[in-house]
Amino acid sequence: MKLLAAAALLAALVPAAPFGQSAPSASTGPSARPGHESRGDDCARPPASAEARHRTDGHPRDRMDLSPAEAAAVEARLNRILDGLGQGGHGPGKGRHGASESASLRRAAQISIPVYFHVIHAGAKGNVSSAMIQRQISTMNTSYGGGNGGANARVSFTLKAVSRTDNAAWFGDPERYEGTYKPRLHKGDKSSLNLYSTYIGGDLLGWSTFPWKYKSEPQMDGVTIHYASMPGGSIENFNKGFSATHEVGHWLGLYHTFQDGCSGEGDRVADTPAERDPTNGCPSSKDTCPTPGEDPVHNYMDYSYDTCMTSFTPGQGTRIHNVWTAYRA
Ligand SMILES: [Zn+2]
């Protein structure tokens, strides 16, 4: 993917969006789109709001990164809510493996999520077929059910309705028009997934909102994906539908596996080894942090090729259920 030097410079200057909210927020305009990440996770660098962004040679997928301070604030609030609900003791920290993760996940009630799928297209462009939409939902069910490997996260999706909007402007720049199309198309409540397919320029494959943003911006809640990332789409190496799996992971409260890099509590999941950088492609192995464990290159919450992604961990499943209890139940 080609990167523009001027936009890259801009990307290096704009601060990270508060709480890593959706990419197209006011603080990161479309001009900041090319493959640069606000990672805030470099082991050698102290956290800073204008954290340098790093070029990734692969697909950046999204910009759903939080600075360590932002993640810490989110976690403190999440833990307060869970404590208030009598759901304390919510999982061990990074590196302190919880043997009980699998057991507690098996005890968790299945989360069944109705999906409102919104096709934004420009004439024939992006007007994905009903069969493709069904394949996307099916891919999400397989991913979250552990069907490709890893844990059964006990989350499932049912297609509730499909809307189709022929709008060349929205299709051409969904970041710019996010505040227009979302309130008009959004359906359901905090436990409904609104999934928008459209064209996304630059290197991005999608973006999401985090569950803790629902209360203040309910109409903006949801996930936007590049239509060509859907199963059978045209984006090479990223057309198995795992962009939706990945973005829905954020919608369910998961961070990137490289959140906070090698330091701190990482992605707040004990059984995903710490990872300094996003993974590009599909390396046979990669180990970027001194702490035990190789990088989780096959995890849906990394940036690897779709062809490389196979799994969530029990810890991620447990986190999804905790976050669901706090924010979407
Ligand atoms: Zn992401």
From TrEMBL:
Biological process annotations from GO: proteolysis
Composition skew (Basic and acidic residues), residue ranges: 34-44, 51-65, 265-278
InterPro entries named among the record's database cross-references: MetalloPept_cat_dom_sf, Peptidase_M43
Residues in Peptidase M43 pregnancy-associated plasma-A domain copies: 237-323
Pfam families xref list: Peptidase_M43 (PF05572)
Cleaved signal peptide residues: 1-22
CDD domains the UniProt entry points to: ZnMc_pappalysin_like
Keywords, sorted A to Z: Disulfide bond, Hydrolase, Metal-binding, Metalloprotease, Protease, Signal, Zinc
Family named by the database record: Belongs to the peptidase M43B family.
Annotated protein name in UniProt: Peptidase M43 pregnancy-associated plasma-A domain-containing protein
Source species taxonomy: Bacteria, Bacillati, Actinomycetota, Actinomycetes, Streptosporangiales
